[in-house]
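Worked example

This section walks through a single chain of length 208. The input is the sequence exactly as stored; nothing has been trimmed or padded.
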Amino acid sequence: MLKSFARLASVAAIAAVCFVLPAQAADKAQLLRDASRTVDNLRSDPAFGAARNMLRDARAVYIVPKLIKGGFIFGAEGGSGVLLHRTANGWSTPRFYDMGSASFGFQIGLEQAQLVFIINSDRALRGIEGGNFKIGAGAGITVVTLSSGAEGATTLRGGDIVVWTSATGAYGGLTLNGTVIKGDDEMNATPSTGPLATALRRNLARTW
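Given that input, the structure is written out below as tokens.
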């Protein structure tokens, strides 16, 4: 009985992720606008503070303007994001990646979050660009969370990836362990080189 229930829970949770991701997927233009707005929010967040120094040597950033997490018994989270890496001439052309995960447990609520992944190492960047990157799945990659409003959070150092997050809702925190990041082949089929992509790159350059 318990095994059957566990299998049912797993199937339901995976189905929840499959539902969340398409529901949160945005077209390129909207996602680029939202990503630039998230950069603005990051810049104005007092909790960000001294963490700005971490960004000087960052290899890349992954911006998720809207991550939705919710559930009753079965939980799921998902969203679409934009990845840019450093080049000799500034920030690269944006590429698009989806993230999502499933969980099971006694939980209730709905949470929406903005996230910025500050990617500090080549191995972390290669992991994400390689596709189906799973946070907390070994590979020796450390992830540090920098929550908006958290006292002393800006003193954190180290980590292959540092995640800034600003979240609202009934959940007490955002757990990224087990989250999968995967390239969006459809969105990445053609390069994003228009004015919205340029505006995002310039906004990032003003931030760090």
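What to look for: Residues 2-207 form one domain.
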